[in-house]
User: What shape does this take?
Amino acid sequence: MKEKITLPEEFIQTRKPIMGENWNLYLKEYEKEPIRGLQVNTLKIDIETFKQKFTKKIEPIPYTINGFYLKEELKAGKDPLHHAGSYYVQEPSAMIVANSLSIKKDSIVLDVCSAPGGKTIGISNQLQNTGLIVANEINPTRAKILLGNIERMGISNCVVTNFSVDQLNTLYTNTFDYIFLDTPCSGEGMFRKDEQAVKEWSLDAVENCSKRSLELLETISSCLKTGGYLIYSTCTFAKEENEDIIENFLSHHSYHLLPLPESIQQVTEAGLKTSKPTEKCRRFYPYTGKGEGQFVAVLQKQEEQSGKQTNKSAIQPLTAQEKKIVIPALKEMLSEIPEHIYQYKGKIIYYEKEDFSIPLHQVLSVGVTLGTIEKNRFIPHHQFFTTFGKQIKNQLNLEKEDIRVKQYLTGYEIKDENVADGWGALLIEGCPTGGFKASKGKLKNHYPKGLRIFSN
Assistant: This one.
């Protein structure tokens, strides 16, 4: 039995009336261990193949297209298939957000508070590398973690940024088809999972989060196209951060609240009634489904919006000299060269959305970083291998039990006499994982040092 958590008295006094007769059911959940889950990355592996590999460890999450509950502990950090980007570990209730509506292919999507990347990955699995995702994270450290996950998953249609919402509003007015705002909150829904959230909780924190959430929602709404969808979510039960925000926003904006899918309604409760009905919002509690806590509202914009993105893009075409170096190198390595190759901040990139402009500063990554030019030679980047690994001619595909997989992930040189000399991609059970440079059967390791396994 899990060690008992002591809830703050003010939390009990204010949240017990909200849950009503279900309060005791809620308390019983604290006697259980948190439920864990994962998203399958369908950009690298199909659902049925993944189920065959993990059949005894997982069961489907009914409201997701690619989510599973974990039935037993999974040490993802040591699992080669996790390194290969075949899945992403995520708390099950958090998966509701990206699955709260169907995203049309070729859409332009903004994930405002994106780190560590679970929503972005869920969105990418719907888009299937069509359209564009702007994954934004204002915290620089968390933004780097986000970028690492984007690279590992092989997502090619993502721009990772480090903007404030005010900057986004200035750069991209009336631009996005979908905006996901999973706003920083008081974290009441994570109490069972994160005891630090319990210690930091207070009614003052709730009030501060509420004010900040409304400011974020008001500001970022200008970035949405008319007819577009804004998905507002928190991981808290506080009415002040949930229904009150939606009610306030609707009182002076022309938006419609939309119902969430039936599969989500079955594991959630309706939003609390206020002076304007918010029953179409949904509340996930640990006793309504397997998971922690979540609030989601889906709004569609009705009002006309003027303005558009006006910044000049810092992305440039390759120079004649760069083409002489890059194109032959890519032809040698790839079965088919991708279109839309550019340069950005000294890097060679693949970027398809030419009409979506990118500024020079506070952008960590654009599309796929293919590599750099050093001493008149093209040097491929790690993301080149994780994203285009299946199209790379020179491959070594290993089963995860092969001893060379552990050697590679640890940073050692590995051997294979059948691999041709030159750059190549290492795949783990068909999932592109990283790169190597082969010479006479010896494969020099190019798996980034920061990702390597250093112990058993």
Q: What stands out?
A: The mean pLDDT is 95. The chain is about 30% helix and 25% strand. The first strand starts at residue 37 and ends at 40. The domain at 318-336+372-451 is CATH 2.30.130.60 (Archaeosine Trna-guanine Transglycosylase; Chain: A, domain 4).
